[in-house]
């Protein structure tokens, strides 16, 4: 692998300048990585990027190829060390089949995102910032990874989250609770909580959702029993996310869960990681992840017991029937 990366670094300018050559290099490098472990596999993400790896590690090969031109010797050495450790690690046993929940629920009405205000944001020099396409085809500057400007551009996520909650209440047979204690559902550190709601389907084999709206501004959604999903996932200038792009991710998660396209597993392998897989309700994409969970032993034990009942994924949420009303247990925080 070291020889291959060394060759690519000396020829990367010619490779990335030719789309066909770049595509071939991406596939070749990915196949070399996949050959390092018997359970490694390819996966195409919703944005078209290609990943290769296993539960213990995944690498977005497209980004690896793109980054080689600017990578220094230390970065390449670190990558090689990471790959060698991954290749030499003991394989997970048994190797479980991929978690592929099938979204089979069909809502009576489609969710319509509220119109989001898109003000013009300006940089230090007064020029308008084209968020979402700020860097074009270039890599973000190094110092942009530690800077967050105009985080207020994500305020619209609160509006989208509240619209999703209202939509779920009116469409599905759920119990809704706004008890402040539900903020503890989110295991990650959250900024000041300004609103929240836990929605629990009236089918114990369907995954609950907890929405936590924070002052950052942002939203964290806890799906099922073990996984948190932040929106935005990163608000730094380098990542260049927008309220619209993050709203799309949040809608994919929430509507996918309600449609039965979400699954979780715990414990996975000898490291006892937690795993999730999400398939969009409309079949437009999928994502998955795995990693350690720092929850309390009692919470992990309860999650393990509950997930045994849904080994292939959580069920679709039951649709709201005629005459059925949702139950709100308490007002939300101010």
CA radius of gyration is: 22 Å
Q: Outline the low-pLDDT stretches.
A: 322-334
Overall geometric form: globular
Query: What is the CA-CA span between the terminal residues?
Result: 56 Å
Mean pLDDT: 86
> Going across the major beta sheet, what is the strand order?
8-7-6-5-4-12
Helix-strand sequence: HHEEEHHHEEEEEHEEEHE
E-strand count = 12
Biggest sheet statistics: 6 strands, mixed
Q: Assess the beta-strand content as a share of residues.
A: 15-25%
- Helix/strand class: alpha+beta
- Count up the helices: 7
Range of helix content: 25-40%
Question: Could you characterize the architecture of this molecule?
Answer:
The protein is of the alpha+beta class and 334 residues long. The chain has helices at 2-16, 19-34, 61-67, 73-88, 156-171, 243-258, 297-307, and strands spanning 41-44, 50-54, 57-60, 174-177, 193-201, 209-214, 218-223, 227-231, 262-268, 273-279, 286-291, 327-328. Helix 1 (2-16) runs antiparallel to helix 2 (19-34) and helix 2 (19-34) crosses helix 3 (61-67). The longest helix is centred in the first third of the chain and has 16 residues, at 19-34. The radius of gyration is 22 Å and the shape is globular.
